[in-house]
Structure formats: C-alpha cells, structure tokens
Amino acid sequence: MPEDTLLSIDDIARLRDALTAADFTDQGIAGRLGPDAVAAIGRGDHRAALRATADRDPLATLIRLFVCQQVEPAPAVRAALAPLDLDEAVAGGIVTDAAGCLRQGVDLQPYGDRWWIVADPPAWTHRGGPLPANHVLGLGGASATLAAATIRAPVRTALDLGAGCGVQALRLGAHAERVTATDLSRRALRFAATTAALSGQSWELLHGDLAAPVAGRRFDLVVSNPPFVVGPGRATHTYRDSGRAGDAICAELAAAAPSLLTEGGTMQFLANWAHVRGQDWRERVSGWVTGTGVDAWIIQREVSDPASYVRLWLADAGEPADPQRMADWLDWCDAQGIEGIGFGLVSLRRTDSAAPVVRAEELRQQVAGELGGHVAAWFDRQRWLRSHDSGALLATRFRAADGLKLRQEARRENGDWAVTRQVLALTDGLRWQEEVDPVALAVVSGCDGDASLGEQLTVLAAAYETPAWQLGAMVTPLVARLVERGLLVPAAG
Known about the structure:
By secondary structure, the protein is of the alpha/beta class. It has helices at residues 9-22, 26-33, 35-42, 47-52, 58-67, 74-81, 86-91, 141-149, 167-172, 186-198, 248-260, 281-286, 306-316, 323-336, 371-386, 390-395, 438-445, 453-464, 468-484, and strands at residues 95-98, 101-104, 107-111, 115-119, 155-161, 176-183, 204-207, 219-224, 261-276, 294-304, 338-350, 358-362, 397-400, 404-413, 416-426, 433-435, 448-452, 488-490. It has 19 helices and 18 strands.
C-alpha cells in the first residue's frame, strides 16, 4: 500500500474509528432516517433527512455533511470526527472551510456496513463551473452496475483497470487473495489508496494507462469501468475520456483479455459501442473478440441516439451550454456513420476450446437478482454444452426451469380461437422469452426429468410420422439454445 493517501495511516485509522463509533454505515443511516427519507435522498430531496438530523449528534452531523452536502458548525464537525483532529481533517481535505463553518471536502460515502469510499464531491455540489479535468468519481450508476454484474467466486488474483477511487477493487478485496489496481491518474490512485486504508484493505496500486503497468502478468479476474465515452478522441475529463476515438478503448480492452487472463480466467467491463450505418452492431462488437480464444457474452442494455448521448455527457461534467461543441461532436458522429450508441456489459472467459462461443445480444428486460450470478451461470452452461454433443444431449434427461411459463396468442377464425404464437417465458432470473413451434413445445412439455431427450423423440417421431433421426437433427439445436438460456435444465442424477 503506498503511503500517498489523503491522511496519514494513523489519521485514517482515527477517521475509521469515528465513522464506526457514529455508525456512519448504510445500515446506520437507514436506521436513523427511515426508508422514505432514504428514498427521497435518491431523488435529490434532502428535506426529510435534514429534519431527522436536526439534533446534530455525530451520526446526524456526518449525514448532514457528507450525504446532504450541508455546511455545518465547526464544533459539531469536530465532535463527529473525533478522535481525528479537526485540523488534520482540514489539512487532508476531508472537510473545507466555509465562512467559519465547514463543508465536505471529499465525497465520503459508506459502502455497506464495513467499507467507505473516498472521492471528489458529487458533480451537483461543484460550484463555479464544470468539473475539473482530473475529477475522481465516487460510487455512481455505472460503477454500481459493474459491481452487480461481476462474478463473485473466490479467486487468487484480481485486477481493476482504471480503478478511480477504488469501488471495484473494494468489492474484489472480499473474494480475491490479492488485488491489483491501475489508473492513469495519480490523483485517482491517491483516493483509491485512502479508500483501501479506510476500509481495512491493502491493494497493489500501479500508475499507468489501463493494462500497461501489468504487461506480462495474468489474473484470474479482471474488471474495468473504463472511460468509455464514444467521441472524436478529445480528452477533457479523465473519468470519461480515453483519448481514443470512437469505441476503440473498449475494443482495446477486449483484445487484451487473452494476454491478461489465466486459463479459465474472466474479464468483465462496461462498454459503449457505436451503431454504425450499414453494420449489425452484434457482428461489429463480436469482431473485437472473434478468434482470440475467449468465450464472450456481450449484452446490450440500452441504446441512445447521438444527440441525447452528447447532451448527457456534456451535462455530466457540468460543462456550460456550447452549441458549437455539441455540433462538432455530432458532425463527427455523422462522418463516422454513427446512428446510435449502445451501452452494455462485455464478459469474456479464456478457454482452451478450439471453438469458443461468442454471443452478442440484447438484454433490455429487468433482471431478477445481481447480474453477476447470471453471468457465471451462462459460462457454466457453455462449458456443459461444450462437453455434450448431439448424442450426449439425446442421452440427457432434462426438466423445465422453475417458474417457466407458456404464453399464447390467438385470433378468432371462423368463430373459433386459433393459436398464432406460443412463447416460453422465464418468470425469474434473466426473464428470457423464446417463441416455439408445436414440436418444440411438445419436447419442452415432456421434459420432466424422467425420460431422456432421445426417448422423448422416439415417441414424438411416431406421433409426427417422422424418422427419429430427422426429428433429432431438428430438435437438438433448439434444446441447446434453451439450455444456454436456462429454460431447460439437465436433471440431477
């Protein structure tokens, strides 16, 4: 752990003692404010929280200072931070002077009930213009998305590329024996070092651009919330701009996976990608990893039109309205044939298979539970399918996934209802839906775990007066797809 932290290691320990004693944790804050006030804070409404903290005991003062971004009296802040000396807190930038009172100097945010994240104050508290170029983000929507999507199996070594203040590294520290984190910004590494020390963790922190500081090394798990903004390559803010044009930063990360991962290792990163006129985005993004020796699951969660996308990122940094800046960015999009920008997750696993699986698909529906568990299950299903050829599938007994439903659409024909569409739908997990024909539905209906797929097809072949081998050739690819999506499950035993 480098000593370049906002406070000395001893003072960080004192700050941790103060936060712990006050119960400045997610649970402590929720208990003090109640669910309605906590929900209101998420909408930017601090009124209920301020009413609940009017007495200014240590927890109340910390909530008002770091959650509600209020200016607080020095005596109350001194009492809330003790045993950390207030002068040391000011010198370290934890709090700053505000006309004789004090306001937050950093974003000091509980993360669960035993960790804290230290970053720059949120964008909406920044006064006097746009965010500085070296602004260090705290826990935001993108970092929370990646944290929820990361596979949490125990690993020996983990790497966080572009660590920022250390949100991902903090979560990695709970299930990795050793954590390495890199960042191009030395200022971000200083925040990350403080986050680690305050939360009782120790990471290897390396300065440099993405994977450059770890060249030649391999890891069991690699994660990244990179500066993925799609643009002409102009780097004005390190947290969002990579200096690469278009979506090259994401293509670069994908290409680095084989050399960064141990055998069976996994890389996961958030990405934005361009939807280019005349190109299928799936083929384009799949091309980042095709032939590299990794299984890949690339899921698109949303798509933005260029104008909305540019407005979002200009506003995100608090940049003043600049019609020319926006016009230049949109002109660049037009010149590149960019009609939209997709946002999603890229998950890659190094494999020794001669035929890695690469899937790029939409996943717009709401997902039940953290996405990371579903990603892990997807890779497990790929491994299972790779070990089961058509013959092995026919010998397997399957059952329908728990909660699988059949939805039918019908129209009136000659006074009767005629079914026109049948859809199998998962009501939990990834909530996939698959349209099926009558033969496929008959197969799934017979998957009760008792008969093998081959035994089912023998019965169906007689009913449909079709050779069993022909029916098998038609059905096994469908069954493989239903297994991949979790609609069918190999029966135990």
